[in-house]
Amino acid sequence: MAHFDPNAKPFSHKWLDERLAVDTLQKVLSTEYWIPKNINFLWAMGMILAATFGILLLSGIFLLMYYIPDTKLAFDSVNHTIMGEVGYGWLWRHMHGVAASVVFLIIYIHMLTGIYYGSYKRGRELIWISGMLLFVSFSAEAFSGYMLPWGQMSYWAGMVITNLFSLGSLNLNGLVEWIRGDYVPGQAFLGRFFMLHVLLMPLIIMALIVLHFGTLRIPHVNNQDGEEIDFEEEAKKWKAGNRKESKVIPFNPVFLSKDVFVMSIYFIIYFYLVFYHFEFAMDPVNFDPADPLKTPPHIYPEWYFLWSYEILRPFSKNAGLIAFGFAQVIFFFLPFLDRSANVAPANRRGLFKYWFWILVVDMIVLTIMGKVPPMGIYTTIGTVAAWTFILLWAVLPFITKMEKPVRGSK
Amino acid sequence: MSDRRDFFGKALGAFAGLGALGALYAAKRTWDPLPSVKAAGFTTLDLSGLSENKLYVDKWRGKPILIIKVAKNSKPNEAPNGNNKNAYEDPRLISVGGHKYMIVIGLCTHLGCIPDYFSDKHKFICPCHGGQFNAAGEVLKAPPPSPLVIPPFKITGNKVVLGEEGPEYKKLKESGLVA
Ligand code: HEM
Ligand code: FES
Question: Is B145 in the same domain as B167?
Fold first, then answer.
């Protein structure tokens, strides 16, 4: 039964707790959310992602004050107004561009960490799936943002990517024109991608981050040995003062301080890039205004889309689209394609160890091949790497089915 | 009592569902191309005075139009798919005033980049994924699955109007040569 102490001072701790249950909230969400001790800096990547999303939001708000979503004005509003006239406008633009690029590096590290340690199994399937939804949403967010400066790369990337929706021989040109609101990318196209980039996608991403955190709460994070920890038992030890014996620490303030340490190093590197090496995140071709009558000599997506783009390239149109679609969705199914019950680091898991490292190398090769022109030996390497990617996923259920139980896991 | 609640629940659900469908439809229509965008655009090409084997570019409905007055000998220097016949003999060319022209929408049928014309090789090469076409717009090398598309046209004297279907266009269309 609700009880309100008439003598509690407004906004005092007691007053707030009676109305908002702040004590319970704080316990559930932070001081009694238990984190295993047996983890390493790779477990800080999630919080780094959350912080980088914060940076994107903040810098984006400032850019939004001067950006104009009009095909005639957009290019100058970015390249003249924001970069030249607005005080510190360049800072927001470079922070936004660099963050948009490095966020994908961190996402890939975060995903590969999850794969390496088997953190998508035994109660953690929804963490993985919500994470993949975040990956797809971030991709949509990055793509829609890339359209906004209305430079040559914006225009032609917009052309090529929206054409994917004609779905090859199905020739759904009506669908493509519907997505664009025009026969070719134009004002209607810029307007709707602007809306997606500054409102709808950020809203979806924020909702998904809440979901992602929610899916983590009950299974808790995994650890370096994939050990199944009795969190209640270990928490009791901690609370009883046996901090040395307990296998866990509270998220706040103990674990958070470690997170903040890794984040600080990350931000030192990040701001170094923002101030001294922002150019890697700015494609020179996009400093030419969009020209519907001239395709740039060599077009390619931003580095983080290259691996899946390269899976599209070596095949004929229809096969390429199928392969590309496959690459987009296959990671969602990882928790169900991995048939082994082992939750353990890949290097203790027999053939899966090789599977993991071949996947990593293959994705790097695909990324490099996606950047070079589609010619001669590059086409051959690209084709082999694309087939390797597909075959890896085809063999995954079989090699994991054969896997022997790892000592210590059930 | 629970029947009543059931009924109200269903009625509410039905109305809310109708409203949601209506909202979805409105949202779909909002994304549709505007009438001003769809209103057919026409472009008139004047073909007198073009030089042979040189690429000319015009624009129709925002899309690039590629025009070549095809030379008598327009064999591609090399055709990875074996189709290295002389483009001048191609039935897709449009005859105007005793000359043959390639008039196509300049968007690669793979994913829509504009292919570059190399007049010495008598072929187009697409900058995006390396597709190739001959001087009549036929595919010489994948990934593009089909020839460059011929827009609807009508011949009047030495001029060609794009956006209108003349008898020559209809004939090509019937023989399945426009796309
Ligand atoms: C882009 C926004 C994302 C944010 C803000 C985010 C945030 C977080 C946070 C804070 C954690 C807990 C700490 C940690 O283990 O690092 C976490 C865990 C996890 N995330 Fe993400 N994440 C994002 C994207 C993804 C993606 C794309 C995937 C992969 C599909 C993913 C899969 C996972 C998994 C499997 C865990 C559990 C790790 C474990 O149990 O050891 N997340 N995430
Ligand atoms: S768009 Fe021309 S080959 Fe892909």
Answer: yes
Residues A280 and A317 in one domain: no
Asked if the structure places residue A9 within a domain, the reply is: no
C-beta separation of A208 from A202 below 8 A: no
C-alpha of residue A35 to centroid of ligand 2, in Å: 50
Ligand 2 mean position to B140 CA, how many Å?
13
Task: Please tell me the total count of domains within chain B.
Answer: 2
Question: Residue B157 has which token pair?
Answer: 């004297």
Q: Residue A266 corresponds to which tokens in the numbers above?
A: 């990350």
pTM of the model: 0.84
**Is there a contact between B65 and B152 (Cβ–Cβ < 8 Å)?**
no
CB spacing of A160 vs B64 below 8 angstroms: no
CA of A49 to the centre of ligand 1 (A): 8
Predicted local confidence at residue B1, as pLDDT: 59
Residues B93 and B9 in one domain: no
Range of the domain at B97: 38-174
Amino acid at site A271: F
Q: For ligand 1, is residue A212 a contact (CB within 6 Å)? A: yes
**For chain A, percent of residues with pLDDT exceeding 90:** 77
The answer to whether ipTM exceeds 0.90 is no
Helices and strands (H and E) in chain B: how many? 3, 11
A77 domain residue, yes or no: yes
Check if A222 has its Cβ closer than 6 Å to any atom of ligand 1: yes
pLDDT (tens digit per residue) in A380-410: 899 999 999 999 999 999 999 999 888 654 4
Residue B14 falls within a domain, yes or no? yes
Residue A361 domain boundaries? 300-410
Last residue of a domain, one of A262, A293, A324: A293
B94-96: strand order across its sheet: B55-60, B63-69, B99-105, B94-96
Cβ-Cβ contacts under 8 Å, A298 against chain B: 127
Distance CA A293, CA A308 (A): 27
What lies within 8 Å, CB to CB, of A140 at 6+ separation is: A196, A201
- Give the list of residues 6+ apart from residue A136 with CB closer than 8 angstroms, or none: A328
Q: Which residues of A29-68 are buried (b: 16+ CB within 10 A; e: fewer)?
A: eeebbbbbbebeebbbbbbbbebbbebbeebbebbeebbb
